[in-house]
Target: Response regulator
Amino acid sequence: MLGRILHNGKLDQVLTMKKLLIVDDSKVSRMVIRAHVKAVQPDWEFVEAATGEDALKIVDEAKPDFCTMDINMPGMLGTDAAEQILQKHPHMRIAIFSANVQDTMQSRANSIGSIFVAKPVTEKSIAIVLNYFASAA
Model:
């Protein structure tokens, strides 16, 4: 379903019955993202991965609608995993969350077709991501 537009700090309409893949090597970061999204989207399903390699496997099995991705993780960089996911699933929306706010990282995220959102994860950053996800519908 279509969700849209931030109004007075709240999403007017919400995306319902969607699945979000949360990829981050930090369990705490995954929990924070899940909690913030669940507060706005209580009907969503969540799947998690701690590495880019795991994310590539989970995408094919779980078929998520959206993905949040950390950059710096053991093994594959999140931007590389996101690029591979988007090559196979070009309509998926991926938001790159990272504390690494260097211009090169932001440019890389944008060049592969995702958005870059700086950590720490907050209600405001989750609202940006959910609006980005909603614009896909």
Observations:
- Confidence is low (pLDDT under 50) at residues 1-8.
